[in-house]
Specification:
4 helices, Methane Monooxygenase Hydroxylase, Chain G, domain 1, mainly alpha, about 160 residues
Length: about 160
Amino acid sequence: MQRPEHSPSQDKVLKQAKDLIRREIKYCRHLRAMISRELEAIVLNGDMDELSGILEQKDDIISQLQLLADGWRDILTESGLDSNAQNTDGFGMRLLEIFPDDEELPALIEESREIAGSIIKAEDDAISEIEKYSAGLRSQMVSRANAKNAAASYAKMGGGYFY
């Protein structure tokens, strides 16, 4: 099927949109890998220092994704596309309507959606594991505090009954 001719401004919008989607996918893949590392730090290693470092790295990636979101808004404004499309999904659907014959665009949009869904599920799992780990730590701390209090009470009573 031959691609219909578009104006230079439409071609520019399509090129910018594809670039943003590719960058979004790249950052999302990196974020997904960080979430996997986060789960390893919690579940396998119980390493809060490692977890803290991973969370900082995730913040950097999330900042990059926010910049991409700003890029979407810029394209929306510049192109005059539906300004009600506040997210990638809405903008992606609008792009598919405008460029129905573009062969690459549907796959890029689908990949972006899939990885976003994967991130949401993985992040929910990570939060659940952090909550479980935190509850376990709280329980250990309470148990230790109780043991310490019992030892202190025992010492106050003279330390023993059999002298």
